[in-house]
Amino acid sequence: MWFVCALITTLAWGAADLFYKKGADEKDKYSHLKTSMIVGFIMGGHAIATLLLNDIGYDPKNLLIYLPVSAMYILSMTVGYFGLRYLELSISSPIQNSSGAITCILCLVVLGQTMDWLSAGAVVLICGGVFALGLLERIKLKQDRAQLPEADKLADEKYRIGVVAFLMPILYALVDSLGTFFDAFYLDDIETTPLVNVTEETFEDVANISYEFTFLICAVIIFIFLMIKQAAEMKKRRDNGNTKENAAMNTLKGIDDEDDEALMRALADLDGKTAVAAGKKETVSPAGEFVPLRLSDQVSRILAAVFETAGQATYVYAMSGNGVVAAPMIASYSIISLILSRIFLKEKLNAKQYIAVAVVIAGIAILGIAEGLAE
Q1: Are 10 and 308 in contact (CB under 8 A)?
Q2: Residue 105 burial (10 A CB sphere; 0-12, 13-18, 19+)
Q3: Least reliable range by pLDDT among 178-187, 208-217, 245-254
Q4: Which residues, 6+ apart, have CB-to-CB distance to 158 below 8 Å?
Q5: Distance between CA atoms of 361 and 343, rounded to whole angstroms?
Q6: Percentage of the chain surpassing pLDDT 90?
Q7: 117 φ/ψ sector (left φ>0, alpha ψ -120 to 50, else beta)
């Protein structure tokens, strides 16, 4: 059963990645926060529905008990959303999902979990394939940059392969691996889980509800922050507009109505300043600019959040069933992301990348065979 849940999570999160990328706006300095907010609201709605439709007997204490896991996941996801503003999905996703290898090592060393040789071979294939994809994308990016004009290379270095851009998916992998490791500890066994007032049937749901409610709280905080920033930005823009208008009026008042030549020069000067200002608005700094929060702009983020929540609902069952093997398998959802990005974002695979994809898919298939033999 854990294998089916892990497979559903892998497919759902792969689809979510596509919509995360479509919703990432490099011109919007708070794009990553808006994505986190939408995900938090969708997950919070799912948590409320789960409580209303099922007799779980949720103890609010678990919100605090499960907080270390929730915090790691929410932080890693927000960092990942930030990185998507600068990197192509096919680059960031494989790097991010190398976290499965780190989690696997932590589960084996710290928790003392074991795996059979067939599963171990599958894990090596999956992790090796994911690492290979990241390396191949890096090589491809260097080759593409070598063909760019010098001016474009400078911009490309600053926005696409700068230190900040590559730190984001690496940081995601480190933080996410800690969250997954903590999850394996919390969900490994009903007898050892720190969660309180749970049963064999409910402790996965309790963990998921705790995570989703924590994300909902973060979403509310982000929403309040964005509303405050939006109000301040709107006031700033109004004040700037009034200041420019007053300056223009004062300039014109100081000119004799009968001095047509001076009046024409002043009007031309004002028009020139306006044109320059308009031109400056088209320049986007690396940090981005403030973009007002509008529901119509959130379609891709909402779809991403729906897929994210669907994957999360099955993720806890996969981790409680066989965390040491499920973790690297789920981490391979970057393969789904890569394929979808090629189809919908018009990126292309080369022969070596197809081989890496095939290796990861083979690893997933072997995991399924290993589960069947174990049962």
Answers
A1: no
A2: middle
A3: 245-254
A4: 286
A5: 18
A6: 27
A7: alpha
Return the number of other C-beta atoms located less than 10 Å from residue 184's C-beta: 24
C-beta separation of 319 from 187 below 8 A: yes
Are 43 and 309 contacting, i.e. CB atoms less than 8 angstroms apart? yes
Model pLDDT for residues 119-133, shown as the tens digit of each residue:
788 888 888 887 787
CA dihedral (256, 258, 262, 266) positive or negative: positive
Rounded Cα gap, residues 359 and 136, in angstroms: 14
User: In this structure, is the dihedral angle defined by the CA atoms of residues 118, 124, 130 and 136, taken in order, positive or negative?
Assistant: negative
Query: What phi and psi values does residue 289 have, to the nearest 5 degrees?
Result: -125, 170
Q: Is the pLDDT of residue 203 over 80?
A: yes
224 has a pLDDT exceeding 90: yes
Cα end-to-end span (Å), the chain: 10
How far apart CA 219 and CA 215 sit, in angstroms, is 6
**What pTM value is reported for the model?**
0.74
Q: Are 159 and 168 within 8 A, CB to CB?
A: no
Burial of 190 from C-beta contacts in 10 A (0-12 / 13-18 / 19+): middle
Please, what sign has the CA dihedral across residues 196, 199, 204, 209?
Answer: negative
